[in-house]
Design goal:
- There is one protein chain.
- With about 300 residues, this protein is of the alpha/beta class.
- The protein has 10 helices and 11 strands.
- Strands 3, 4, 5, 6, 9, 10 and 11 form a 7-stranded mixed beta sheet that branches.
- Helix 1 crosses helix 3 and helix 2 crosses helix 3.
């Protein structure tokens, strides 16, 4: 078993699609397929179920995926340590961010870092708050950004920015009339929300809790795994949602969404790092840059 085989397996497993994995890896489909087959034959296991022309990660593959990710994360950490010992700012920095953070706040900071340290390759992935925290805990990401404080053993959490969340509706919704409303009015409309585990969902539920309103009192017909999908449903004049102002700003300006006259909700962004795993100079430099920008 080689690290290259593990890398290929992880890409195929994450996409469950040979062609897409090959394109991402800049390899031929045959080479990717051969690497996966060689890994299975070498250890007499089946990691994917072949269903027609598709492949589906099976139970064995799901169990192995976590181990493969940890091995690859360990290899990256070892490589970072060698780079640091050589005094060279080269290598790869793995970052994972929740959707709202990655959607607008993180992008210019990534660009600024890349200009300062052109020798560092940035590997950036997106997930919800739970997924980002898991990645930092397991060493699959050296730096994480989330929208809701998440306490895990060995993980440091530091606030780096403040976001503003607002309730938005379509122009034809009754709440588009500009009349002031509050949390007590929330049962009057259906809500389209992000999935459980997302920072946006947690912020919404925290808002209800502080107002003494049980989430069960609301009509929540849809919980969706992405800001764009949630926004699309609300634009189609179905209910209301709570969303970052920065994400919906262009839609508010274009008139396809309207901000309801409800008090805004401040929400901090947090930077996560593992306290016990190796900390590369590349990650320290990114951390320092974020801290300086926050001052």
């Amino acid at each position: 078993m080689t690290l290259e085989q593990l890398r290929i397996f992880i890409e195929v497993a994450s996409r469950q699609h040979i062609t897409q994995a090959a394109a991402h890896l800049n390899m031929t489909q045959s080479a990717v397929s051969a690497a996966v087959t060689a890994l299975e034959r070498r250890h007499s296991v089946t990691l994917f179920d072949r269903v027609g022309r598709s492949i589906v990660l099976n139970q064995t593959g799901r169990l192995f995926l976590k181990q493969a990710q940890e091995v690859l994360a360990g290899a990256r950490a070892a490589e970072a340590a060698l780079m640091d010992l050589s005094g060279m700012m080269h290598g790869e920095l793995s970052i994972m961010a929740s959707q709202t953070v990655a959607g607008y706040w993180l992008a210019p900071r990534l660009a600024q870092y890349r200009k300062r340290y052109p020798g560092i390759t940035l590997s950036v992935r997106i997930g919800n708050t739970d997924e980002v925290t898991d990645a930092v805990v397991e060493g699959r990401a050296e730096i994480g950004f989330i929208e809701w404080p998440e306490e895990r053993r060995g993980v440091s959490v530091r606030m780096v920015a403040i976001d503003e969340m607002i309730v938005v509706v379509a122009p034809g919704h009754p709440w588009a009339d500009g009349r002031q409303r509050g949390v007590d009015d929330f049962p009057q409309t259906p809500w389209v929300l992000r999935e459980h585990g997302s920072g946006t969902r947690r912020a919404f539920e925290s808002l209800l809790e502080k107002a003494g309103l049980d989430v069960g009192a609301l009509d929540i017909p849809m919980s969706l795994p992405g800001n764009e999908t949630v926004i699309g449903v609300v634009q189609a004049e179905f209910g209301a949602t709570l969303m970052s102002r920065s994400i919906v700003a262009p839609l508010l300006k274009g008139g396809t969404l309207v901000e309801a006259n409800i008090a805004t909700l401040p929400r901090p962004f947090f930077l996560l790092r593992h306290e016990e795993r190796y900390r590369s100079k590349a990650a320290d430099a990114f951390d320092a840059m974020i801290s300086a920008l926050a001052e």
